[in-house]
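hey so u asked for the seq, here:
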Amino acid sequence: MRRIVSFHYTLRDPQGRVLDSSAGGEPISYLEGAGQIIDGLDEQLRAESAGVKTRVTVAAAKAYGERDPEQIQRVKRGMLPIAGELKVGDQFRTGEDQFAPIVTVQSLEGDDVLLDGNHPLAGVDLTFDVEIVTAREATSEELSRGSAPASGGSCGEGCGCH
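ran it, C-alpha cells below
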C-alpha cells in the first residue's frame, strides 16, 4: 500500500541552523515512493502515522548526494546567460527552462568564473523535525498520476524536502 502523506517540517544543517520550514504555511503532501521528496526522508517516514512528531536524520547520500568535483567548471564570463555584476555566492539558472540547472559562483578570476553545479546541500547530512499531519492510502487516480493532489500543499524549489 502506498500512501499520500502530509507533513510539516523544519530542516536543519549539521550545525543546527534552520535552513527551511513549513511552519505557518500549508503542510507538504507527497505520494510515497514517487520521488517527490528526497529518498532518505521518504524511506524514514514510511512507518509513521498521523499525529507523530519525529526527528529524522538523512545522510547526504540519501538527500542531495555527495559533492561531485566534476560539477565544478571554469567558464568565460561572456558565456553566462546573466547580465550585471557577479559575486562569489551568487546563484542563477543556466537557461530559460524552469528545469535548467542552478549553479553557484565559486570564484571570479579575471574573465573566468568558477561555477559549481552541485546542489547547495550536496554533501550535507540533513536533520528534519517532522510532524505527520495526515497519512492515508493513495487512490488509484493518485497512483496512476504518480503524485499527491496539487491542493495538498507543495514545497518550493530549494526547500530541502525534494
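The mean pLDDT is 90. The longest strand covers residues 126-137.
lmk if thats what u needed
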